[in-house]
Design the sequence.
């Protein structure tokens, strides 16, 4: 018998009671859908949030060098984060900026190999990684700019980062500016995938687990569609350009291609509901960057991390100070109550 016929003959109170029961059942099933999503998303971390060493332990050692990555691993970071750029001969290297002059002695070793770039009213000299072969880049000192104690540190290839992490930590590489490299005839996504295939890391079979990040949505789409990647993905957003992605509709679109949203922490400060709204879409939330001594003392940074983990309830965070992450007390401890704003 059709349900509608049954309903029409029932007492109104019974109909109301049944409607309430139906609502309750729907709410419970929605809860279980969210909880199944949370369980099936490897980046949703309610119990052990992810301590991701941003550019290695970069508060203490020159970013992206072996010294910074090793220090992060010794500090207990389960993940190290290499940003990826490319050399002229198509090799992926761990480097944050697309240019070499901030963190190496390129201007001394190759004084003529710059491009003039207009920055507002000023023309500046910049040494782009894609203008140098790997052999040339390997001559650069990537440590002295921070401290003479690190003189001789080299820029690492992605292969070398994988070898360094092997058996000790997982990696969260970020594909930087894939569109700019494509314009130079360099296919970053393809090169990345080939490296992972060579190391048999595409299905997490061997070596470090890989979580991919990018600000470039289409590259994350491409990894899933063209390369059939099932690796966890983090879509990074910042500033005004984030706005279209932060509505419920935008987050639902992010969830079609990523397992986590990686917002600048300023975006959560501006709207802390971003975390629960992302969770509702099945996304983990991993903000960046929690760092001293640039912005905070150690104590202030620990409080800031505590607010992110306990009040905002993010699933992990990128930090230059992975040692301090471990000093955030348990969120359920009342003596450790989070502060309202970091
Ligand atoms: O990848 C997360 C965070 O590192 C993004 O900012 O500029 O430090 O790579 P950036
Ligand atoms: Ca990064």
Sequence:
């Amino acid at each position: 018998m059709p349900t509608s016929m049954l309903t029409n003959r029932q007492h109104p109170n019974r109909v109301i009671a049944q409607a309430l029961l139906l609502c309750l059942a729907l709410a419970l099933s929605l809860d279980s859908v969210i909880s199944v999503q949370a369980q099936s998303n490897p980046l949703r971390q309610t119990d052990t949030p992810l301590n991701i060493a941003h550019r290695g332990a970069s508060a203490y050692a020159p970013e992206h060098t072996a010294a910074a990555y090793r220090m992060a691993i010794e500090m207990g970071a389960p993940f190290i984060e290499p940003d990826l750029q490319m050399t002229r001969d198509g090799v992926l290297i761990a480097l944050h900026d697309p240019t070499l002059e901030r963190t190496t002695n390129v201007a001394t070793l190759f004084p003529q190999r710059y491009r003039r770039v207009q920055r507002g009213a000023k023309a500046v000299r910049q040494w782009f990684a894609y203008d140098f072969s790997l052999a040339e880049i390997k001559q650069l000192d990537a440590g002295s700019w921070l401290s003479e104690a690190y003189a001789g540190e080299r820029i690492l290839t992605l292969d070398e980062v994988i070898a360094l992490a092997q058996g000790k930590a997982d990696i969260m590489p970020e594909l930087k500016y894939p569109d700019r490299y494509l314009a130079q005839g360099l296919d970053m996504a393809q090169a990345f995938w080939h490296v992972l295939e060579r190391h048999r890391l595409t299905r997490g079979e061997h070596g470090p687990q890989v979580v991919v990040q990018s600000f470039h949505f289409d590259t994350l789409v491409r990894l899933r569609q063209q390369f059939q990647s099932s690796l966890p993905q983090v879509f990074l957003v910042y500033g005004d350009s984030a706005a279209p992605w932060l509505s419920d509709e935008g987050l639902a679109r992010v969830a079609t291609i990523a397992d986590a949203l990686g917002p600048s922490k300023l975006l959560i400060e501006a709207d802390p509901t971003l975390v629960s709204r992302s969770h509702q879409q099945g996304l983990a939330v991993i903000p960046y960057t929690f760092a001293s001594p640039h912005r905070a003392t150690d104590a202030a940074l620990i409080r800031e991390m505590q607010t992110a983990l306990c009040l905002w309830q993010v699933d992990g965070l990128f930090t230059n100070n992975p040692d301090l992450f471990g000093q955030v007390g348990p969120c359920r401890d009342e003596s450790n109550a989070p502060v309202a704003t970091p």
Observations:
- The chain has one domain: 41-327.
- The chain is about 35% helix and 15% strand.
- Residues 1-12, 19-37 have pLDDT under 50 and may be disordered.
